[in-house]
Write a structure and sequence with these properties.
401 residues, alpha/beta, 14% strand
């Protein structure tokens, strides 16, 4: 009976694929490729609300196809994508399926050996947005490290990167490694999760047990590729990847405006257009205004209940192939109290400033303060970007831009 269910699932999704006019199909749609790898196995699935196959969540898809899901592991914002940014999420039992849900954004950031003892194969499917400070790539790394340490095969169901059509920004410098940046990559790295996973392994950026060199070498990593996707594709996400990236305007502006999180200005949390509404109560010479207030996924943040004046970026086309550094410079110049523009930590060390953690260095803040031009700042990024692009090229699975 189980064989018949799997066969019907394969037939169903293959038929759907053939009937479409070459839409972009994420890895999860390629059931004929990965269901045989899961058959008769106890599966550990890392996922959230973004893992859909058409209108159906991957969990339901796998269960309907007779696959045994032993545990579900979840990233920041939880399985349903509604928890606040940075909010610790607890373990739970799924009320619908009874499956144990293990949070990897709470007491721990990776599965333990105990978590994996009753699992045969690990599966990963989460939608990324292609920026260094978006935490899902860190979760991918932790998950890979646990898989390798415990010698569990890992299958990554790839998804298109909505910001995968360019590479830009400063490279993260080692002193600034934090929860919003772990690897020496630019703010926008132009890779899918599958490609990034190959780079983590290939460049030996993962934490490895030196006593298990043979196991590390033989560890199985499989990437299930997207169909009809390349790095020129402009992919529209069918599901919001997190509560404060509600639409494509926010997603495309995010590589630029996430830097505003390191300043006293509101990045629009607490509105319907986070990262596309930017402002502050002191910018009263601007006509656009908004008032951020608590809402699901953004219960607390800066300037709640205060009228902020600033920029409505939903009315402006996001840059196609670069971070809008000129906009960040404009925002700084518009703010009269320049000494208080950047959020100050208790300890005034360069590595403690949140803006520097987001930027990946202390240089960008200093350049902005000194009035450096966009061209001058970009020139300092060039050597790092050239070097990174050479590394990146080795791991691309799709035609480049």
């Amino acid at each position: 009976m189980k064989k018949m269910i799997v066969f019907l699932c394969l037939a169903l999704f293959t038929a759907n694929t053939l009937s479409a006019q070459k839409p972009i199909l994420p890895g999860a749609f390629q059931t004929a490729t990965y269901l045989p790898l899961l058959k008769n196995k106890r599966v550990g699935l890392f996922t959230n609300q973004t893992a859909t196959v058409g209108q159906t969540h991957l969990i339901d898809t796998l269960l309907k196809c007779g696959i045994t899901i032993q545990k579900v592991f979840t990233p920041e914002h939880g399985l349903r994508g509604t928890a606040d940014a940075g909010e610790k999420v607890n373990d739970e039992l799924d009320s619908k399926t009874g499956i144990k849900i293990v949070s990897l954004y709470g007491k721990k950031n990776a599965p333990t050996a105990e978590d994996l003892v009753d699992i045969d194969v690990l599966l990963f499917d989460v939608q990324d947005v292609g920026t260094r400070f978006y935490t899902y790539i860190n979760s991918l790394q932790y998950y890979m490290e646990a898989a390798m340490a415990n010698n569990k095969p890992l299958i990554v169901l790839d998804r298109p990167n909505p910001n995968g059509h360019y590479v830009d920004g400063p490279i993260l410098e080692a002193p600034f490694i934090s929860g919003v940046g772990k690897q020496p990559v630019p703010i926008v790295y132009g890779m899918t999760m599958g490609e990034y996973a190959l780079m983590l392994r290939g460049e030996k950026w993962m934490k490895m047990d030196s006593t298990k060199s043979i196991q590390n070498t033989n560890w199985s990593l499989t990437i299930i590729r997207n169909k009809n996707y390349d790095h020129k594709s402009m992919y529209i996400l069918p599901v919001a990847p997190s509560p404060n990236l509600p639409d494509m305007s926010s997603i495309l502006w995010y590589p630029t405006t996430c830097l505003i999180e390191g300043t006293v200005m509101s990045e629009g949390r607490g509105t319907a257009h986070a990262f596309a509404y930017i402002g502050h109560p002191n910018l009263k010479d601007r006509t656009f205004s908004f008032i951020p207030n608590p809402r699901t996924g953004a219960m607390s943040s800066k300037l709640y209940g205060q009228k902020c004046y600033g920029w409505d970026l939903t009315k402006i086309t996001p840059p196609k192939d670069k971070i809008n550094l000129g906009l960040i410079l404009e925002m700084y110049k518009s703010f009269e109290q320049k000494d208080s523009f950047f959020l100050e930590p208790k300890i005034k060390e360069p590595t403690a400033y949140f803006f520097n953690k987001l930027a990946g260095n202390a240089s960008l803040m200093q350049q902005i303060k000194e009035g450096a031009s966009e061209a001058a700042i970009r020139k300092t990024w060039e050597p790092g970007l050239i070097a990174f692009k050479k590394i990146r090229e080795k791991y691309l699975l799709y035609k480049d831009f």
